[in-house]
Amino acid sequence: MPSPPSPCPARAKNFTVEAIWYPQQAENTNQPKQLQTLILGQGFDAAQEDLYSTLVAPALARGWNVISCEGPGQPTVRRFQGLGFVPDWERVVTPVVDYLLNEKAAFVDRQRLALFGNSLGGYLDARAAAFEPRLSALLLDGGVWDMYDGYKGHLTPALDELLESGDQEAFDNEMNAIQSNPNTTTELKWGILQGLWAFKTHSPYYFFQQTKNYTLKGGIADMIQMPTWIADGECDATFPGHSEMVKDALGDRTALHIFKGTAGFHCQTGAPQELGRVLVCLAESNT
Ligand SMILES: *[C@@H]1O[C@H](CO)[C@@H](O)[C@H](O)[C@H]1NC(C)=O
Ligand SMILES: *[C@@H]1O[C@H](CO)[C@@H](O)[C@H](O)[C@H]1NC(C)=O
Ligand SMILES: *[C@@H]1O[C@H](CO)[C@@H](O)[C@H](O)[C@H]1NC(C)=O
What we know:
The chain folds into two domains: 212 residues, Rossmann fold, CATH 3.40.50; 62 residues, no CATH class. It is an alpha/beta fold. Helices cover 39% and strands 19% of the residues. Helix 10 links the parallel strand 8 and strand 9. Helix 1 packs parallel to helix 11 and helix 3 packs across helix 4. The mean pLDDT is 95. The structure holds 2-acetamido-2-deoxy-beta-D-glucopyranose (3 copies). One 2-acetamido-2-deoxy-beta-D-glucopyranose binds next to loops. One of its GO terms (biological process) is proteolysis.
């Protein structure tokens, strides 16, 4: 029976990573075992606790330690430390790896340390892994090659043109107007409002400019050296084609799994059993 989870803030430079540690063994055990450990990162909007039923509980049941975490822009750090997203996500993951290898060294197998990035974590955790060679495996659900390219693909051609024109005031006015336009999809309205909050700005234009920093272009992907598994869904239109681009950049260090049918939506929402089944096969084929 695993011990109860414990909040364990990991100190990063200039902020605190809010993490939850779910150990396999009681902390006061006489016979600590160094076990495989999964680090979980969330994406653009959801809380780390949302991964409990889909990933934390199944991994605990199969003998893994788990630690989930949130950094700037994500719910707890945005709310309690007032910090918007940062692109250099190794500032979040490296303190968590340090925490595991120092504070939890008796429980953590340093040769089997995997990082899982959910949703926009497909960018964030890929970026972190490029700068964190102590990770032995990287899992991305799904791949994000470039956030700016992906997000602006959801704009109408007219809005895209306005964004590219560089006219901040005109773009912001139009973007604010779509919030009260009944023709705008809820997804786009929500995406913009969430982006403004998470990037801590009132300007949609500034939000889009910031997303240009969230990219694996420019040699970042080449720095990811550990085996990488990418998942995507056949019906997931969040970052169309990006998983293939990340896979192409990583070459034979990576495998891409396309979920189909009910599991074919963003992060396999509604079909966690299928995600779990595929992950178990993956873990078994690598042990
Ligand atoms: C950390 O905060 C200090 C003081 O506010 C600032 O000078 C420095 O640039 C910050 N470092 C990072 C990595 O953000
Ligand atoms: C919404 O779309 C309809 C049909 O294309 C159009 O006639 C109407 O003017 C649009 N409304 C707004 C507020 O843009
Ligand atoms: C991100 O992008 C903005 C605008 O393009 C730039 O001014 C800023 O320095 C970048 N920040 C980081 C941390 O790279």
